[in-house]
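hey can u run this one w/ fe (ii) ion bound, need the C-alpha cells asap thx
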Amino acid sequence: MTLCDVKARANKGGDMDPFELLKADHRKVEELFTELESASGKQKLQVFGQIKTELELHTHIEEKVFYPALEEPEETHDLTLEAYEEHAVVKDLLKKLGRARTANDEWEAQAKVLQENVEHHVEEEENELFPKAEATLGEEELEELGDRMEAEKARKQRGASSKKSAKKSASKTKSASTAQKRTRTSKKTSKSSGSKKSGSKKSTSKKR
Ligand SMILES: [Fe+2]
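ok here u go:
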C-alpha cells in the first residue's frame, strides 16, 4: 500500500490500520535519507530539517498512542521499552544535528549514525514489534489505535503550521504596535503640554 492509498483510506473516514500508517512514515523517512545522501551544502540542512520534522511527529504519535498500549502485554513489553530507548537516542541525535549551521564532516558522521539508528529501529518494529502487536491486540483495539494516531498527527501538524503563521503575524504586529505607540506618545505630549498652558493661565488668573 502506498502513502496515497493510506491517505485515500483515511479520507474515506475508514478505520486506519496502525501498521500501514506507521510504515508509510517509515518509507517517507527512508526516501528523505536517500535524498540527504545526494544533497550538498545548504540543501543538506534543508533535507535534514524535513527528516527532523517527520521523525519528531512519528515518535510523538508512537509514544503518545501506540507504545502505551503495547507496554502492558507481556508479549510486547520488552520490545516496547527498548523502542522507547531507541527513540531517546534518535531524538538526542536530532537535537545535536539541528543545532549545526553547516554540514561539516562531524555533522555527516552524526547524520550517518542517526540513519543507522533509525534503520535498525524501523527493522525491529516492522519485523518484531508489529507482528507481535497484531497477534496480541484485538482488531478493534488496533483500529482504534490507528484512528487515534492519525488524529494526533493531524492535530500536531495543525499546531505546527499555526505556530509558524503566529510567528509571522507576531513580527508584523510588533512593528505595527511600535508605530501605534509612537503616535500615542506624540499625542500625549501635545495633550500634556496643552494642559500645562491652561494650568498656568488658571493660576495666573487666581492670583489676580
Ligand atoms: Fe518508532
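The chain is about 90% helix and 0% strand. anyway lmk if its weird
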